[in-house]
Amino acid sequence: MRSLLILALAATIVSCEPKKKVLYNKVMNVHDEVMPKMDDIMKKKKEFQDKLATKPADSLELQQKIARLDSADHMMMDWMHQFNPPDEKTTPDEQTEKYLEDQLVKVNDMKAYVLKAIN
């Protein structure tokens, strides 16, 4: 019974949150999920570069993998540099929500590309 009450309270609190705050949190959660993958990208890139030095016969495939990892890294860096949420005090809520909805699409696209490059 107590857990049901806590769940109902949590649902009430979440439903009271402004949409722009919910959207911002979703965007940041995706970013925070993907950011640690940058270490994986660097490790895989180093691994492929080491293989490239010892197995020149596989050079085209390894170069393509390295290029995909570089692209994924650049995609993350580009997204972070362009992410600039509007000022809450001077921007209408609708405009902020639209910006964050667009950013949610972009950050999810970046996430998909990063995960694909790593795999």
Would you write up a description of this structure?
It contains 5 helices and no strands. It has helices at 2-16, 19-34, 37-54, 59-82, 93-118. Helix 3 (37-54) packs antiparallel against helix 4 (59-82). The radius of gyration is 20 Å and the shape is elongated.
What is the typical, i.e. mean, pLDDT?
89
Q: Oligomeric state of the chains?
A: single chain
- How large is the radius of gyration? 20 Å
Kindly name the structural category. mainly alpha
Determine the fraction of residues in helical runs and give it as a percent range.
Answer: over 70%
What is the distance, rounded to the nearest whole angstrom, between the alpha carbons of the first and last residues? 44 Å
- Contiguous low-pLDDT stretches (5 residues minimum) are none
Question: Based on DSSP secondary structure assignment, what is the total number of beta strands?
Answer: 0
Q: How large is the share of residues in beta strands? A: under 5%
Question: Biggest β-sheet, characterized?
Answer: none
In N-to-C order, the SSE pattern is HHHHH
Shape: elongated
Helical run tally: 5
